[in-house]
């Protein structure tokens, strides 16, 4: 229900609170609401709501009271979805958005800038009205690198309802993922992971440098297959660290990823392979679910998939019983010609 359908906070009585939640100490609640209004009413509804959350609305307070005070606090609010939580300026300044706004907010809105919370709406308005300046800043802060820069940020055109974003731009998304960004370095952690069924084991960590090395190895191994650049390559396996490495490696090398859910039966896999005209597929021999090994490679074979690269779910054991033309993960990586090895930091095979 919209906030305007409720009594304003200063009109809520102790009787209203008692009717909403019989058995509560309505008089004490009402007094606490009055104190919040007296101390924070001049700072706006978000400040009053924050004070109510801090001093009044404990989990033991019935939800009907939470709801009444929330909508009462934001009665007449400009949006039908008032904020249920607003960070304080100190917390906001520690976020990525807050850090950027603190550094560059005055560059955009001058002396009107106060802090990341109070000025958020003004910055949002600026971003809509000045996309060239705003998005140029975003790309700088994120360290996004284009091999061919866009001619502009947004081009208005009848042929493109809503406009054409970044016309003429060329980049490789994966290359940007594995390149150290401002304030980061190659020793920073890129992935934190743990194997299925090993919940009590220590966490595993992959640094940005190691991720770049592994992605480059996959990209070089793909190049050794001599597939046409821009070809579709499927991935049908659980979302684990190998899947991340493979995904980025495919894009680094200039190919297109086709993601297929590991839960799909053979007919559904076949349909997606046909539609995408995939030239190869990465998969696992099995999927681990608790103590069970659920066949996956056999489903890929049943789907009449193109050449499959098969990762063993347990360790680095050689996989037996592969189709002619399919490759084990070990053999796939072993095809890399290290005399022609390329570190794909800035890949030359970009896709528009």
From TrEMBL:
Q: Entry's InterPro entries?
A: ACAS_N, AMP-dep_synth/lig_dom, ANL_N_sf
Domain AMP-dependent synthetase/ligase: start-end pairs: 183-289
Query: Which residue ranges does the record assign to the Acetyl-coenzyme A synthetase N-terminal domain?
Result: 122-177
Q: Which UniProt keywords apply?
A: Membrane, Transmembrane, Transmembrane helix
The family database entries (Pfam families) matched by this protein are listed as: ACAS_N, AMP-binding
- Gene3D superfamilies cross-referenced by the UniProt entry: N-terminal domain of ligase-like
- Superkingdom classification of source: Eukaryota
Where exactly are the transmembrane stretches of this chain? Answer: 244-269
Q: Which SUPFAM superfamilies match?
A: Acetyl-CoA synthetase-like (SSF56801)
Q: Hey, which family's this protein in?
A: Belongs to the ATP-dependent AMP-binding enzyme family.
Q: Which PANTHER family match?
A: ACYL-ACTIVATING ENZYME 17, PEROXISOMAL-RELATED
Q: What is this protein called?
A: AMP-dependent synthetase/ligase domain-containing protein
Q: Which organism is it from?
A: Eleusine coracana subsp. coracana
Identify the taxonomic lineage of the organism of origin: Eukaryota, Viridiplantae, Streptophyta, Embryophyta, Tracheophyta
